[in-house]
Amino acid sequence: MLIALVLTVLIECGLSLLFKSRQLTYSVLLCNLLTNPLLNLFLILFVAFLGRDYYFVVLLFLEIVVVGIEAIIITRTTDLKPPKALLLSLFFNAASFGAGLLLNAVLI
Questions:
Q1: Per the structure, how many domains does the chain have?
Q2: In terms of C-beta density within 10 A (0-12 exposed, 13-18 middle, 19 or more buried), how is residue 34 classed?
Q3: pLDDT at residue 4, as a whole number
Q4: Residues 57 and 49: beta-carbon distance below 8 Å
Q5: 96-99: which pairs have CB atoms within 8 A and are 24 or more residues apart?
Q6: Which range of residues forms the domain containing residue 72?
Q7: Cα separation of 14 and 71, whole Å?
Q8: CB–CB of 33/63 below 8 Å?
Q9: Is a pLDDT exceeding 80 seen at residue 108?
Q10: pLDDT by residue (tens digit) across 56-83?
Q11: Which residue in 63, 68, 79, 82 is a FRET match for 52, CA 20 to 30 A apart?
Q12: The pTM is what?
């Protein structure tokens, strides 16, 4: 779980630097410190109870929830409006999710 958190923080905070806003980068860091461990914990628990057959369904559901939660956090910790915060959250999460898929494909 720690490796997933570190990689997610590096990718998403790295991308947030493109927007040249310390406030946004701090917000993205806060988002990931709050949501990434919970997402991974819930994913482990759901798979333990439902089985691996539901892994991607549960993962997709949890990722959608995380995008929404992080959009709310970004909205409340920056001066961004909700639609832009939602797009940024989606962008950051899609990038880290895609990197995770790529990393898994390479390692497996």
A1: 1
A2: middle
A3: 87
A4: no
A5: 96/7, 96/8, 96/11, 96/12, 97/63, 99/7, 99/11
A6: 2-107
A7: 17
A8: no
A9: no
A10: 899 999 999 999 999 999 999 999 999 9
A11: 68
A12: 0.90
Distance CA 104, CA 108 (A): 6
**29: helix, coil or strand?**
helix
In one-letter notation, the amino acid at residue 104 is N
Q: What is the distance between the alpha carbons of residues 50 and 55, in angstroms, rounded to a whole number?
A: 8
Task: Check residue 67 and give its pLDDT.
Answer: 98
Q: Is 80 left (phi over 0), alpha (psi -120 to 50) or beta?
A: beta
Distance of alpha carbon 4 from alpha carbon 96, whole angstroms: 10
Helix axes of 82-107 and 22-50: crossing angle, nearest 10 degrees: 60
The string of pLDDT tens digits covering residues 40-59 is 999 999 989 988 898 889 99
When the pLDDT of each residue in the chain is averaged and rounded to a whole number, the result is 94
Best CA proximity match to 16, nearest among 3, 1, 4, 32? 32
**Structural tokens at position 8:** 């997610």
